[in-house]
């Protein structure tokens, strides 16, 4: 089954997200959307940003990935639901070379890959659960362009996919443009916090209220007073 009738995240949003850390996007999206950490970068240092082109395969079979490589558009990210199976690789050097030539932005596989040494020397961002030298079969049908579950996250075709050394975050296409302002504010807030740390301003403004709300700090007692008492008790 192949579905080509879906909308992709718009180009202006993709461009705006190109340099945003995955952690920032995860934070402003309610700390949701990050794939399980078992799906990790095969080559650290590469950034991934593109539109999800979803592929659902049978464990250990990559027939539909071959089809997807012919159908995906430049800037798409192959997001493959391989069911977490690592008994055989779903992609390797040749298929990833095809992806590069086709202009794809990257590959995310909930399963295994192979030819890791070569892929680590390449320019294509590849995320997978691990590697296995076993090759796959190419006989089983599947689905392209339908929602999939990858790394514990539902990914719909056309969603925003961003990855870096921390991992991969998926943002719903319908929410992607709306979260940009929040992401920019988060980047600036963290930059200001780093400046404060460098200047010796170590107390978080929100910390006292959060400690009161949790019951860890009694109402009516200030955090500064607790710090001073703690330091004196340890003298």
From TrEMBL:
Cofactor annotation: a divalent metal cation; Mg(2+)
Chain positions recorded as Mg(2+) binding sites: 115
Coiled coil feature spans: 173-200
SUPFAM superfamilies in the record: RraA-like
Keywords, comma-separated and alphabetical: Coiled coil, Magnesium, Metal-binding
Record carries keyword Magnesium: yes
GO molecular function: metal ion binding
Superkingdom field: Bacteria
Keyword Metal-binding on entry: yes
Residues bound to substrate: 92-95, 114
NCBIfam families documented for this protein: PRK06201.1
Protein name: Putative 4-hydroxy-4-methyl-2-oxoglutarate aldolase
